[in-house]
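Protein: Glutaredoxin
Species: Parachitinimonas caeni
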Amino acid sequence: MSEVTMFHTSTCPYCVQAESLLKRKGVTHINKVNVGTSAESRAEMIAKTGRRTVPQIFIGERHIGGFDDLAALELSGGLTPLLLA
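Structure follows.
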């Protein structure tokens, strides 16, 4: 299974939804980076994605985007192949 990294905050409902979707897809470990407690982590997220909102999700080295992007990828059938790559 591909490595999944998610930039998040502890109070973000979209982060919870993203984690739930990933777990339903069989992801057992998510590298979670809390940008709410670390200015350095937030700066890293912005530098990598150009976005300021959470969650920001990576599967392997590929930036997926936020929860809406992840959900759209699942609906289109593209999520499983990425996770299994």
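Remarks: The first helix runs from residue 13 to 24.
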